[in-house]
Design goal:
The protein is mainly α and 320 residues long. It is 69% helix and 0% strand. It is globular and about 60 Å long.
Length: 320
């Protein structure tokens, strides 16, 4: 007569498979709760708003450098910063910061959120994604985010460039709401999503590959090589991502700035599109003009990307 095995011995005999959660045949159990979908939007919005506000003076200097057309009297990043401080004061370095924060809340919140949505649709729950798949997810997320945030981006560029114009030509926007209202009134509501939206989407698609997909890949490489998932790893991965994003995006960023800053009407229109702006600049100012403000771009991207990702990662820990 055989003695029945204790329940624990049966479970040990069957192995780990017996202790895994079971689901009905033919159904897939979601690896993450549905609630997690919205978290990416919130984390991206808040993290990017913090990063954007901290890096705004460098972004302002970058825009002013990109708008330089006089080949004989170009200022470097330090000289441009000193000029802005001398002529407009410390407050001048934060001109347009409200537009920058509003833009980040919409633009980056959408980018981060849609990036998570696309990665999940691509099968992230079942295993790490390849770099090309991450890049494709980032391109789509960046383009959608740029379209949603174009009014804020347009207002920010106009406000940042205002101090460089002669006093008689300055637009005199008081804040982002005043800027959006005046642009809509003088150029039409459609212009908020028409002026510079294509170069903005192109730039966002490229830069999101650097800021999000490259960060994911760099972080994965660091973790695979024994680094712990903590702030030093987040800092290192985001620093590398900032350089990649700057290198990829600067030519399109310069074209976007030139297109957004030009007025409407046949007399004010100098560039007709992104490629036209880039080719015209290469022809009239030389190929290196596409990398005008690169030092300022990287100097701005580095604190922005690092602060944004460290903030996002810390929020992930708190929210999960």
């Amino acid at each position: 007569m055989t003695t029945p095995q204790p329940q624990q011995e049966k479970e040990n005999h069957l192995g780990m498979e017996a202790r895994l959660p079971r689901t009905p045949d033919g159904q897939k159990r979601p690896a993450k709760p549905a609630q997690a979908m919205w978290k990416g939007f919130v984390q991206g919005s808040v993290g990017a708003a913090i990063g954007g506000a901290c890096a705004h003076p460098l972004d302002l200097i970058k825009v002013r450098m990109q708008l330089q057309t006089d080949a004989t009297n170009k200022l470097n990043m330090v000289q441009m910063g000193r000029r802005i401080f001398a002529t407009e004061g410390a407050v001048g370095l934060f001109k347009g910061v409200d537009a920058s924060i509003a833009r980040q809340l919409v633009y980056s919140g959408t980018r981060f959120g849609m990036y998570d949505v696309f990665k999940r649709a691509a099968g992230e729950d079942s295993g790490p994604l390849s770099l090309p798949t991450k890049a494709a997810c980032a391109i789509g997320a960046g383009a959608i985010g740029a379209f949603c945030g174009n009014p804020g981006d347009l207002a920010m560029v106009r406000m940042q460039a205002d101090g460089k114009l002669p006093e008689a030509q300055r637009r005199g926007y008081r804040n982002i709401f005043d800027a959006v209202r005046k642009i809509a009134g003088s150029e039409g509501v459609v212009s908020l999503w028409q002026t510079g939206v294509v170069p903005n989407m192109n730039r966002a698609a490229i830069i999101t590959v650097g800021q999000l997909a490259a960060y994911d890949q760099c972080k994965q490489i660091l973790l695979d090589n024994g680094f712990r998932d903590g702030i030093p790893t987040h800092f290192g991965a985001s620093f590398m991502a900032a350089f990649i994003a700057s290198l990829m995006s600067n030519p399109v960023d310069v074209a976007k700035t030139r297109l957004m800053n030009q007025g409407s009407g046949p007399d004010a229109t100098k560039y007709t599109g992104t490629l036209n702006a880039m080719t015209t600049m290469c022809r009239t100012e030389g190929p290196l003009s596409l990398y005008k403000g690169f030092a300022a771009t990287f100097s701005r991207q580095c604190p922005y990307v690092v602060i944004t990702w460290v903030s996002v990662e810390q929020m992930k820990k708190m929210m999960n």
